[in-house]
Amino acid sequence: MREILRTNDVVLLSAIAALLESAGIGHLVLDQHMSVMEGSIGLLPRRLLVEEERADAARALLEGAGFGAALVAP
Known about the structure:
The protein is of the alpha+beta class. Helix content is 36%, strand content 20%. A 3-stranded antiparallel β-sheet has the order 1-3-2. The mean pLDDT is 90.
């Protein structure tokens, strides 16, 4: 798995996850339940990982959809 996004914006995370899902690209969201530890203030970012062999396709899809600025460096 390779990290392609790290954000506190749950709406952005949801939109990107939906795009990946519709394209059939497997992904995993980590740290989404850390708000229990931080007190629900949104301090800790959530990380979105995609399948290693689909990382380039996921990046191309998200850049084409206008989310390129939100992606972490490869």
